[in-house]
Design brief:
With 188 residues, the chain is mostly beta strands. The chain has helices spanning 24-29, 161-164; strands spanning 3-6, 11-13, 16-18, 38-44, 50-56, 64-70, 72-79, 81-82, 90-96, 102-105, 109-115, 120-126, 135-137, 176-177, 185-187. The strands form four sheets. The chain has a six-stranded mixed beta sheet with strand order 4-12-6-10-1-15, with no helix packed on it. Strands 9-7-11-5-13 form a five-stranded antiparallel beta sheet, with no helix packed on it. A two-stranded antiparallel ribbon has the order 2-3.
Length: 188
């Protein structure tokens, strides 16, 4: 499966707008053919909060469908599939309440984001239940990955204790298999 940036249609009038954000048939037509089992929401008080780079390993690996309900984020997917020609490479996109875009991140990718505005809320669907024993991640500032985080405060990001201690990619033995689809960001 590929990382996909999904733009939905908004139908507006004098009251505001309406948008269908998830339809299992429409998603399957876009190549997102799986069942989501859990919805998660995060709130970040400040600009410059980084959450990630996170994943869940097999047997409870998770694909994610991410959207921003309030504020804005720069959302990132990092290829961590063993044997992939794009292993360690990343793609990113701005998701905001204003643009209504969603990012689909398949199994085999680490996920993270930085808040571009204060008071930001992020909502995402996952394809497997949270399993603490399968919880993992990589260091947000790993130079081998080289994510270019926009909007970084001069004082650095706000991080959780957990995220400050995540391993670097060279310390990571990936449990994810390459599926033959190199990393690219497909829009649509």
């Amino acid at each position: 499966m590929a990382v996909r940036l999904i733009s939905g249609k908004r139908f507006g009038d004098a009251r505001g707008w309406f948008s269908e954000v998830y339809n299992i048939r429409a998603m399957a037509e876009r190549g997102v053919d799986l069942t989501f089992v859990q919805d998660n929401q995060s709130f970040s008080k400040a600009k410059g909060v980084i959450r990630g780079l996170h994943f869940q390993s097999p047997p409870h690996a998770q694909a994610k469908l991410v959207r921003c309900l309030r504020g804005a984020i720069f959302d990132v997917a990092v290829d961590v599939r063993k044997g992939s020609p794009t292993y360690g490479a990343w793609v990113g996109a701005e998701l905001s309440a204003e643009n209504g875009k969603q990012l689909f991140i398949p199994v085999g990718f680490a996920h993270g984001f930085i808040t571009l505005e204060a008071e930001t809320e992020v909502f995402y669907k996952v394809s497997d239940f949270y399993a603490p024993a399968c919880d993992g991640g990589l260091r947000w500032n790993d130079p081998a990955i080289g994510v270019d985080w926009p909007g970084m405060p001069s004082t650095g990001p706000l991080l959780s204790e957990k995220d400050e201690k995540l391993p670097f990619i060279h310390e990571f033995d990936s449990p994810f298999a390459y599926d033959g689809v190199p990393l690219s960001l497909i829009e649509g």
